[in-house]
Each structure stands twice: as C-alpha cells, then as structure tokens.
Amino acid sequence: MSPISSLHLRLPSLNTIAAFEASARLLSFTKAAEELHLSQAAVSRQVQSLEARLGTALFIRRHKEITLTPAGLEFQEAIAEGLLALRSAIARIQNLNDKSVTVSASLAMSSFWLMPAILDFQTAHPDIPIRVLASDSVTDPASPPGDLAIRYGNGVWDDVSAIKLFDEVILPVCSPAFLSGRAALDTAALVHEPLIELDSPITTNSTWRTWFRNRGIAQDSLNIALQLTNHDLVYRAVCAGKGIALGWSYGVLRDLRDGTLIRPVLDQVSTGNAEFLVHSNDSPLSESATLFKAWILDYAASQRLEIAALLSVAGVP
Questions:
Q1: I want to staple 316 with a disulfide (CB 3.0 to 4.6 A). Which of 32, 184, 246, 260 is the partner?
Q2: Overall fold of domain 99-317
Q3: Architecture in CATH for domain 3-97
Q4: DSSP string of 49-84?
Q5: Element (H or E) spanning 95, and its range?
Q6: Is the pTM of this model over 0.85?
C-alpha cells in the first residue's frame, strides 16, 4: 500500500471534517447546517460519525447549546492550521499565473510620486501590469489592500514588513511668477504672504500653523488665502501663482528640478515621520511583486540622493 493510500485510510471523511469545522466555529449545529446547505440532522450525524471514528466526544451537548470538549478544541486548532496552510498554498499557486501587481497609497503619494515611478517601471517591464489603489481612507497597515502599500507613520507596525522610502520633510514652495522678481523672503515674513493650506485627514503636519510652530515662529496672524482638501487643487493653485504652499520633498522634487516651482525660503521641517513601503508577512509576494518591490526601493534610493542635493542648495535664483 502506498503512503498516500495509507494516509487516506487514516483520515476521517472531508464531509465529517467540514461539518465539525462549521459547528465548532459557529457553536451551533443549526447555523452550521445553514452555512453548508444541509439539514441540522445531517450535520449532527456527520459530527457523530466523526466522534465515533475518533473514539471520543468533540462537543458537550446541552439544551440549545454546544461547547467544545478538550479533544474538540485540539481538533479545531489542527483544522484551523490546515486551512491556513491551504489558503497560503492557493494564494501562491494563483500568484504563479498572475503577473499583475496592486499597490495602494494616499492620493498625494499616488499622484506626485508613485505614478511617475510606475511609468518609469513599465518602460523597463512592460509585461507587468500595475494597479494603483489611491485613497486617503485610513487603513490598518497590518492589512494593506493589494500586494504592496505605501503608508505614512513611524514604521512601527505589527505583522508587516516596512521599509522606509522617505523621511517627511516639508518646505514652502511657490511659482516663480508669484515672487515677481523679489529676492528670497524672510521665513518670519511668510505669515503675511497669501498662504495655501492643505486640509488633510491623514496628517496634521500639512497646516501652516504646525509648520511655523515647528520653526519657532509666532502664528497669531496667518494669511490663509486658500484652504483646500485635495493635494491636486493645492498644486494647481500654487502653480497659478495664488500663493505659497507647503510641499513634501518627494512630491515637489520634479517641479523644483525643472523650475515649475521654487523655494521662497530655505527653511524646512523634518517631522520624524516617514513614508514606508509595506506588505503583509502572512503571505509571500508573487514574483512580479517581488521584482516591483526591489525596483521601487532602488528608485526611492536614487531619489533620496536627489532630494538631499536639492535641499542643500539655494531656493530663489
């Protein structure tokens, strides 16, 4: 007799295991029957057959109530571990045939950094489709939607791999036309300039009041000309010369490089938070996701060097 045949003879039937698993999880033969689309009597018989096969009671039966015996608890734990292993194997098998990669990020990160990076990635890897889930909804970093996610915070999260992409560095930016030939401004004098502010649900560091407080500057009379709830609207307003906005170093790098935006002052604020690339430790990444992860980390490293150089040079030409 082969080892597989011998193992098959020693295992209870899958029908009895399914009836037990549902009954143990729901602690109800009736609810288990509804879930399995069987009669309550059929589920009860399946469980009794399993108990006879194992030679021990798995449930303590009371009037309208069942609880697990020590043997039932042991068997339930073993089944749970087996189902987890099956789910993991199924995910790995499905990933073998799926080359797409799903990445989630905030609206601002998606628009100002992730999308330009993805365009570069697909130039090098046109055979790997990328799906972006862009949202400012607060999600649990330990359960990121998709294969990979970019999350803001301190990087201390359980059950995820978190690799820092960028420290959060916030600096004032404006269009060249806004200054109209004026020299670089004094930082304290910014309170009198028309300021454009982002009202963000995911960070308190987007406000001018917080930025001035971190610089040790009084904020009694700020001239908030526009307060907007969307990074793209802030970007459009500042490019149109409507005032000075706060920008994140990773997001304004391209615009500062090509002269679309300039720095009216050289001051900046490092908040101590950062943007991290995260993924769950519960399931392995696909080959495509692993490739994209390595590529995006290299891309971020090269951009960090550019940001460091950019932040060390003068603002207004």
A1: 184
A2: D-Maltodextrin-Binding Protein; domain 2 (3.40.190)
A3: Orthogonal Bundle (1.10)
A4: HHHHHHTS--EEEETTEEEE-HHHHHHHHHHHHHHH
A5: helix 70-97
A6: no
